[in-house]
## 1
Amino acid sequence: AYLMYTSGSTGRPKGTAIEHHSAVTLLRWAADVFSDAAIAGVLASTSICFDLSVFEMFVPLSRGGKIILAQNALQLPWLPAAEQVTLLNTVPSAMMELLRIQGVPASVRIVNLAGEPLQRKLVQQIYQHPNIEKVYNLYGPSEDTTYSTFALIEKADLRPPSIGHPISNTQVYLLDAELQSVSDGTAGELCISGDGLARGYLGRPDLTAEKFIPDPFGVGRRLYRTGDL
């Protein structure tokens, strides 16, 4: 379906090869979670070089919604179609700045936050806008087609936001160096299996074999080792 190059700042860029069925997995999950009204107008402000753009473009267009284009999220208050935006899909730092400049239109109902750690203080600030109905915290590497887990952060929940549970057709494990499940309270590597996994890294069979390994919990499945603890 497409190639997404990642980690160019830390070394040789890796071309992550995403197949059509993996992108469809993301779209099907989104169809179960977000209503047609929620995605009637999605701000598309993320560069197509980054995987958040996959959600911003294809989720609304696959459901009859529209995308409102912007060079970056901070342009939102000055867009002619700003009042048509119903869903924001961005990083916490950008959302914090939008709140600071009072740049969130009254039309926005849903806020998706990903790509950076989410603090409870920011969630509380978002919910101070009476039009905001839901705030989601999302996590996922490009190697698993944008999003792997999600959590609805309730207005009354004062706990630190978690990354939630896996999206549909996805399995997430916390494993030790021997690929065994860790006990509660023990740090482990976050590993992902399911229909959203990429084919691998273009032209990098060695790295593909290192990061995409046989899933010890499912015959014929693969497991992606994120390196995240």
## 2
Amino acid sequence: MYSNLKKTHLKKTHKYFLKFFVILIFFIYFNYNIFKIYAVHENQNVFPFFGKIKDNDENIFQKDCSWNYKPVLRYNDLKDRIEIIYNYDYRGKMREKHYTDTNKIHIYKYDDENKIVSIHDFKNHELLKTFEYNDQNQIIISRDHKNKFQTKYKYNKKGQLMAKIKVFSFENYSLKKSIFHYVYNDEGQTINKIYYADIFKRRNKFFSFINGFKKRNFVLCTYKYNNEAQRIKKINHQTSSIHSYKYYDFSQIYEI
């Protein structure tokens, strides 16, 4: 008799313990996800720990992209101050860039396929830039709101960005302001940005001939990475500026 009562009591205890354990797990999971959403949408300076995003996630352009490679801010080493603060949504998509020098905030908007389609000025409610894509979902053209400034993007067979051509157009005139080429290391990281040319073109053979003397070729920017493949430095050789990048799981800013 006593033995049966003891067994019944143990079964009830195990049953209650199992229910309590399930409720506890659910409570932790629920609050963790609520915290993730709140941290990004309400308190944009808080970045909770996120797991690695899956390779087939359409929200990410490049594979093997995780929160470890998304900077929280860009720091000007020479001026000793923060210049840009980056904010993301809970999926890891760039939502805002806050430029601290000018106090401007740029808002990034996406389509149903999670491709960036436009950038807006938050304070002035002004459209700044729009984007166009090819069949491989690669950005091929970006335009300003007046369609005067355009940037064309060129890729190699690996899908790496190889060149940017910034063009200013006005009536019969076309000014290729800047042509940039990108150099990669064996790990697929951008290590150099090369300034190639500054060409002014008109519908006139004479000016086209003169432009042949304006071509240049020098390394504009150099990029450095740490052992975790995070970009930590951008060195602009033209302006002699040095920028560091801080990540959400870093406790310091890397400096030379």
## 3
Amino acid sequence: VATCFSCSSETSKRPQVNRPTDEYIASPSLKNIAYDSLNIVTADGVRLTGWLIRPNVALADAVVIMSGGDAGNMSFSLDYAGYMTNIIGVPILLFDYRGFGSSTAFSIDPDRLTYPEYVTDIEAAIDWTKRRHPNAKIILHGLSMGASLSLVAAARRSDVAGVIAESPYISQRTLVERINAQRQQNGSGRTVTYDGGESLDPIAHVGKLGSTPLLLIHGAKETKTPPEEARRFYDAYPTADKEMWLVPEAGHLEAMNVAGDQYVEKIKTFVSRIAR
């Protein structure tokens, strides 16, 4: 059983930032975290940087690939990964999308919701893992935008053993309309845009996710993607091997902060079951 995860200020609170940054706020070497430094090349020739965070004792042949949200970089998840890798006993792969951290530069419109290239980046991380760990089960763990795009990536492939999706959006159009309505109420003249299609919508791909196990984590107080939208996606998910954990009192990406040790046990139980 995990011990007082919620009591640790280092591991229980993800740093906040509202845009991608190339400045790393931490490094594994300075924190004495066991890791390998990675260079991942995407299908379209873009170089991504990553860290494979290794547990002190490996308990199963699996790798968890973490995909972050639309801000910060992989260093913002380092404390979490350094802690959780030893709880779950499998490596955690952190990487930076193009335009984030020290990955290849990429022009990002701060008012655009997301880019299809980020799915290409997630798939590149999967392909790297398959080459280096050919027998490992691959589990995707996405946060916010990364959760939505991890679901899209998993729908394209047959080699993903499970998905942990924290606070995903379900439909770009619905989310953009909600954000823009909120901005209009607040007197902001800026509007969020998206590509106009459904190619990056998890709900549009839900039928292709087949029997891929799912742990969907959502805050009961989410406002950008209300719980009823997450429930609609969950209900449409085609396998019985699924769980939706609605965390009381939690807003966007607040499950870890609010639920503490219960959050740790949820992740550990899911990964252990898939990885065994």
